[in-house]
Specification:
Number of helices: 4
Number of strands: 2
Largest sheet: 2 strands, antiparallel
Bound molecules: zinc ion
Number of domains: 2
Radius of gyration: 18 Å
Strand content: 5-15%
Helix content: 40-55%
Length: 127
């Protein structure tokens, strides 16, 4: 049960990255953005066989645990990594605010905002 350190009850839509049009935008396991416009007939939920398999195994473990089927379960290590990356994101955001307070020029602020966006985009990859 130690692997089931954290469970967050989210909607299935959040879990799989489904959007209003029903097309998944992110891998249901690792969170990588899925390529768009391919496999129109059969919607992809995972970026590859390995993610599909790991999602299946985690789902089976969640079912055995008695947690809700759509619970999102992250290990201690996954939570720690996520917290590290969120900390990076916060630092990048604070850097922009500090630079603005210090009267940084627009190109510098733009460069820092671009870096902030890059850190945030990395965070879309959950695992
Ligand atoms: Zn994936």
């Amino acid at each position: 049960m130690s692997d089931l350190a954290q469970s967050v009850d989210t909607s299935r839509d959040e879990l799989t990255g489904l959007r209003r049009n029903g097309a998944p935008k992110h891998c249901g396991w690792c969170g990588r953005r899925l390529p768009q416009g391919e496999n129109r007939g059969r919607r992809r939920r995972y970026c590859g066989q390995s993610c599909r398999q790991r999602a299946y195994e985690r789902r089976a473990a969640v079912q055995r645990s008695g947690l809700p089927e759509d619970a999102v379960v992250l290990s201690d290590a996954e939570i720690a990594t996520l917290q590290d990356r969120l900390f990076q994101l916060r630092c990048a955001a604070e850097d922009v605010a500090t630079a603005a307070d210090d009267g940084a020029e627009l190109p510098e602020l733009r460069r820092m905002a671009t870096e902030l966006a890059r850190v945030a985009q990395d965070l879309e990859q959950l695992r």
